[in-house]
Design brief:
Helix content: 25-40%
CATH architecture of the largest domain: Orthogonal Bundle
Distance between the termini: 43 Å
Largest sheet: 3 strands, antiparallel
Order of helices and strands: HEHHEEEEHEH
Bound molecules: zinc ion
Number of domains: 2
Number of helices: 5
Length: 126
Amino acid sequence: MPRGREKITPLMHRVLQTLSASRVHLTAEEILECLEGVGRATVYRALDRLCEQGLINRLSLESGTSVYEYVREPHMHFVCRECGNLYDIPAEFASSLEQIMTKCGHSIVKTDVTAYGVCKNCRMAE
Ligand SMILES: [Zn+2]
Ligand SMILES: [Zn+2]
């Protein structure tokens, strides 16, 4: 959740709009392309601050790339090792995970689950 004292700059607002409008996972380079005329360092700084404020998520994939997404309902990710597609998967386990953690006395701020494998499309193509 955003911490009220942090201010959102106009650029941060544009980054948020870009991510929420496209409903996908974008790399920093793709976000840069959407924000024509804005310097690379400025965009990276805005991404860092939005991550710190919990408004967007940064996912580091095993391929070494990082993608950003607008924070919505909890979900997990599935990455296809054949085509590289990233899928959003409903995280039905999220509430039971939270119960388990509460029982242990912990409180979850962020859950990050990414599974890797071969997607349906690639399996059908085989
Ligand atoms: Zn695939
Ligand atoms: Zn996602």
